[in-house]
Amino acid sequence: MKQTLTAGLDRLGLSLADETLDRLVAFGEAVVEKNRVMNLTAITEPERVAELHLLDSLTLLRVLPLAGKSLLDVGTGAGFPGVPLKLAEPTLRLTLLDSLQKRMHWLEAEALPALGLEARFLTGRAEDFAAAHRERFDVVTSRAVARLNLLCELCLPYVHLGGYFLAMKAATASEELEEAQKAIRLLGGSFERTEQFEIGGQTHCVIVIHKTAHTPPQYPRSWSRIKQKPL
Ligand code: SAM
C-alpha cells in the first residue's frame, strides 16, 4: 500500500511526511480488516485501496488549500475522503456525516481513536441536519453518494458564503453537471471549474462549486421530494 501511495502522490505532485504515509496505510489496513466483519467497501485489494480510496481522497489537496478549514464530508461511509484529508492536513477541522449508524460508530469509537484523530460525528441524514448546521462550513465534500443535481441540495445548504462544495465524480461528471445547472443556481452556488485526475487507470473529476449566495430557507426538502422533483 505504501509504495502505491508514494508513487501515486508523486504523480499528483504531492509529498507527505513518512509518518503521515504510515498513518494513511494504517487507516487503509483498518478498513480492509473491518471489512471482513462489516460491509464498508467493495474494494479490498491493498493496492486498489491505496489508489481508489486513499489517493483519490488526497486529490482534494490539489484542488483547494485546506489548512485550518472547517470541512464536512457528507455520506462519508468508511471515512472517504474526510479521514485521509485529516491525516494529511491535521489542522483541518473535520466533521463526518453519514446515515449508517454502524459505520459511524466504527469511525468514532475505533478507527479515529486508534489514529489519535479528532473529528465531529453527525449520524443521520444530510437533509435532516441542515437546519442545525446551516452555512457553517468552509468546505463540503462528497463522494459516491448521489447524482449531482440531488447531491447539491444535500450539500450546498451547509456551505457558508464564499466557501466551496467539492463533488467527487467519475466519468459522468460533465453529464451530471449539465443536469445540475438549475440546482446549483437555485441553491446559491456557482460552478467554478472541474479538475481531472488519473487514478487507478481511470479519470476522476472534482467539480468545484463556489457558494456565492445564501441557500433559500426552503432547501433542503425531504429526501422523497428531492428524488421525486429534482431541482
Ligand atoms: N463517501 C464514501 C466513499 O466514497 O467511499 C462512501 C460512499 S457510499 C457508496 C455512500 C454513503 O452515503 C453511504 O455510507 C450512505 O449511508 C451515505 N448516504 C447516502 N445518502 C445519504 C444522506 N442523505 N445522508 C447521509 N448519508 C447518506
What descriptors fit this protein?
binds S-adenosylmethionine, 231 residues, 10 helices, Rossmann fold, 7-stranded mixed β-sheet, alpha/beta
What is the structure about, briefly put?
The chain has 231 residues and is of the alpha/beta class. The chain has ten helices and seven strands. S-adenosylmethionine is lined by residues 75-78, 80, 97-100, 103, 125-127, 143-145, 154, 223.
Describe this structure in words.
It is globular and about 45 Å long. Helix 7 links the parallel strand 4 (137-143) and strand 5 (159-169). The chain has a single domain (65-228), classed as Rossmann fold (3-Layer(aba) Sandwich), CATH 3.40.50. Strands 3-2-1-4-5-7-6 form a 7-stranded mixed sheet, sandwiched between helices. It is 41% helix and 23% strand. It has helices at residues 2-12, 18-35, 46-58, 82-88, 101-115, 126-129, 148-155, 173-179, 181-186, 223-228, and strands spanning 70-74, 93-98, 120-123, 137-143, 159-169, 189-199, 202-211. The model has no long low-confidence stretch (mean pLDDT 96). It starts with a helix and ends with a helix. With 231 residues, it is of the alpha/beta class. The protein contains 10 helices and 7 strands. Helix 2 runs antiparallel to helix 4 (82-88). The structure holds S-adenosylmethionine. S-adenosylmethionine binds at residues 75-78, 80, 97-100, 103, 125-127, 143-145, 154, 223.
